[in-house]
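Lab notebook, bench 4. Still working through the backlog of constructs that have no structural model yet. Next entry is a single chain of 201 residues. Request: give me the structure tokens for it.
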Amino acid sequence: APNAARSPQVSVTTMQARIHPGGTTPQLEERYLMQRNMLGSVVHCPAQPCFPATAMVEAHDARAWPTTYVPLDSPTHYKRAALSSRAVAFYGGARGLLCRPLLNGAADWSVPVGRVKGVALGGDWLAAVFTQCRVRLFNLSGSQRAVWCAPGRHVAVVASGDQLALLYHAASAGDGDRQAVSVQRFLVGSGLAASAPLVLP
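Model written out:
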């Protein structure tokens, strides 16, 4: 996007692997943090005899939402999660993603196709980075609102309120395999009108 707000490039000495903020390395036979932030945590609980692997979604403040358990059966064994005050999303490992709204009894929804590289949850929306640098924006009911291509290979995606930031490789390897990582920011806004473009801060 030519009008995107970009930060100065940060040079790194080796190709930066994807970053999953708030998560730890997946250990499918052990408990591990799929996500932890200021609101709560999503803990992977390994399979037990007669019980599938599950994700325990727990708020730091028990009044925010009840502790929730999400089955992670083998066809959709997600390894990563993103958490906001309104929803939890699962991705990685399996194809696609799964979103579970945490309030008002809304139904789970999923996107069963494509490998998801990263997910960020904003105020009332979800952004997912798929293969081929494709970014998809959904509302929390599962309606897709926008699709575009990131300028480079995905490093991380983060959100807060109505702001979305994509970190990506801005250039291919140079001398000594040096890379350049840049940031592109968007102001998503509230309501996500289908015809409204993303607004840049």
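Notes after review: The chain has a mean pLDDT of 81. Residues 32-152 form a domain with the Methylamine Dehydrogenase; Chain H fold (CATH 2.130.10.10). Flag for follow-up if needed.
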